[in-house]
Specification:
The structure is a homodimer of 428-residue chains.
Chain A (H helix, E strand, L loop, with lengths): L1 E4 L3 H8 L7 H17 L1 H12 L10 H10 L2 H19 L8 E4 L2 E9 L2 E5 L8 H14 L3 E5 L10 H9 L4 E3 L3 H10 L9 E3 L4 H11 L4 E2 L7 E6 L5 H12 L6 E6 L2 H15 L5 H9 L2 E4 L3 H11 L3 E5 L3 H5 L7 E4 L5 H6 L25 E9 L1 H17 L3 H15 L1
Parallel strand pairs in A: 1-11, 4-5, 4-7, 5-6, 7-8, 9-10, 9-12, 10-11, 12-13
Antiparallel strand pairs in A: 2-3, 3-14
Helix pairs in contact in A: 2-3, 2-8, 2-9, 4-7, 5-6, 6-7, 8-9, 10-11, 10-12, 16-17
Chain lengths: 428, 428
Amino acid sequence: MKLISQPKKTEWEALCKRPALQQEDLTKKVRQILDRVKELGDQALYEYSSLFDNAELTKLKVTKKEIAEAEQKLSEELKRAIQVAKTNIETFHKAQLMKEPAIETIKGVLCWRRSVPIEKVGLYIPGGSAPLFSTVLMLGIPAGIAGCKERILCTPCDKNSKVHPAILYAAQITGITSIYKIGGAQAIAAMAYGTATVPKVNKIFGPGNQYVTKAKELVQLDGLAIDMPAGPSEVLVIADPSGNPEFIAADLLAQAEHSADSQVVLLSDSVTMIEAVNAEIQTQLAALPRKQIAQKALENSFAVVFKNMDSCMKFSNYYAPEHLILAVKNAKQYAKQVTSAGSVFVGNYSCESAGDYASGTNHTLPTNGFAKSFSGVSTESFIKKITFQEITKKGIKDLGPDIELLAEAEQLFAHKNAVTVRLKSLKK
Amino acid sequence: MKLISQPKKTEWEALCKRPALQQEDLTKKVRQILDRVKELGDQALYEYSSLFDNAELTKLKVTKKEIAEAEQKLSEELKRAIQVAKTNIETFHKAQLMKEPAIETIKGVLCWRRSVPIEKVGLYIPGGSAPLFSTVLMLGIPAGIAGCKERILCTPCDKNSKVHPAILYAAQITGITSIYKIGGAQAIAAMAYGTATVPKVNKIFGPGNQYVTKAKELVQLDGLAIDMPAGPSEVLVIADPSGNPEFIAADLLAQAEHSADSQVVLLSDSVTMIEAVNAEIQTQLAALPRKQIAQKALENSFAVVFKNMDSCMKFSNYYAPEHLILAVKNAKQYAKQVTSAGSVFVGNYSCESAGDYASGTNHTLPTNGFAKSFSGVSTESFIKKITFQEITKKGIKDLGPDIELLAEAEQLFAHKNAVTVRLKSLKK
């Protein structure tokens, strides 16, 4: 990783800019796919499976038999590990369901909110080089806790029309209601607009390549809700001399192996530490099956040496990383200074892999600086909150005259009249 | 309002479709405005003020002197009414700030979330026919409670370069940090991209005409967060024979006076009730200053008679209204059946005007059926939640082997290695 030394504040913006993607052409291609699915429905989905996944499907929906077979194919120890992860994720996400009190703002005016599950949600799980069954857990579990009635999942199949058994197993144990062998932008289109086979949903979740991401962006313009905008995965590590270069190198590489356009950043108050981490990266890289991907990602990446921890924290908040690892003394104190990040890993033994899989936190997080305004996926992402109010005769008698004044000042006389007719009836 | 009698379920979708807007041309026009502000900054803003607001501005930012003068211009009783509304809105929105407990998912694995204010937010307040100072309260108050550091406001001025004093007063008492005399799509562009005068924000809130709405939609594609997609305002009233036709007519008209493209819907199990409301509408309409607007809106509107309350509730959830008024016996029981609505008004004395101004609930709500997947604005809209985890040596010892298994099953060996190096170090 290239080393940048004490950049001035004016240089931060350029440093924090993530590598930009080609957009024009992509939008056009994805728009075509969306329109075709909208127009032809299932027929388009079969065509795209043949074209993009080399799969000649006879059925889009995964059968009960296929799900049962999947369970047989997995080792008992993997199933047990999946269950451990599931339990921890459930524990953390159940705690997010909090009941708000009803509030009597003044006597006779009772206001409250009620959490209601979004009825139909669609989860997208990428196929490709790694079968991301962990993402099935991260989306399926909070959807279940929230109580979403219809929870469908789309994922591409391989050329033999098979979906990876771990994905099917994870979908089954999290109560996904139906699974479809559809990948890419066409899967997003199917869930956004509905086809004869795939139900139209209210909100779409899940990661994907640039086609999927663009498709999610575009269906938003048709009023579909999505979890969050997305970009390549990223980690930022802040290390002082108390950090362990071996651990830090491993954490940076774990991020770098995701994809060639991932970005990893190391901040430190010590050049010696950065050099030690760089050396460790070279050692560990050699042993990795995905070393070519990781190497490409490292080319987009950088390390920065600052005068002190305070500057490291400030730069990190400015960068707003998806994952932030605090490999520093008094990490918990520094954690309090974090104002922009998706998920934070506090101290030397809190590795990102733990949160990626099994500690309980969600791994669907804002990338690309979106942590400045977005939260990661949580149980709340599957819920909407409806406000209610119940006003008694006394309540409207007391508050009514003020409402009349306010409505009149906004020149909305019908708004005023809705109060006036009630006040008059009470005088009778 | 036209009367529809017991429509079949298959007809519901067509009935619930909101009047569609022309889009193609609008996108092009708004895109041009956004691009011009991005390129020319303040200069474009001055040009558009001249072009669209007929205002020859010499300064975009409202001065302290202008704010002080505004306060002088308002009557004491209006200021007092604004303070009453402010207090109620504060009371309800403060209760939304709930502290979540930290959760030890297993021994040695501590996970928690922390709410952090979004640093910079931009509020848009439309000008036009009514000075919507109430919206300043609805957005400014939760932004302040959340603790957003920079809270800016854009609103168009009149041809004398003046902003309505009630808007300035409401902005001042809610702690808006700066106010700019900018309207329309150009205001959204200024807040999204920043200019020499206007700071770039992280999230944009507020209602507006179709140009504003489209601009918010388009800046989303550049990664800006927005409060929610928007459409014309709407109300749905469910009335049984216990409802009061005079009240209901007033509530429907209060919605109808907003704009010609507003929609109002009345559901009942009684044709007599619908006829009585229609008669009342004619009587009340004659006295309204904005009767032409309301009349146009009524042309887009309809009443439906169903066999029973159960069907009314089902249709309402299908329609997902922005505002829902339950003018029925046992209204609180029926409130429990609501699964899609922005804000619900329970019983005969809970008029929508109360929630629009002063009861405490927010009036920035999902329209156009978006209540199926979106919540209205709340304190949470100005906050992001960051997850944290702290894992001890014991924690990683116990959980680590499962993470290794899971990472290996996803073929992500660098993820596995981040655990392995830690487990090895603990064996030493």
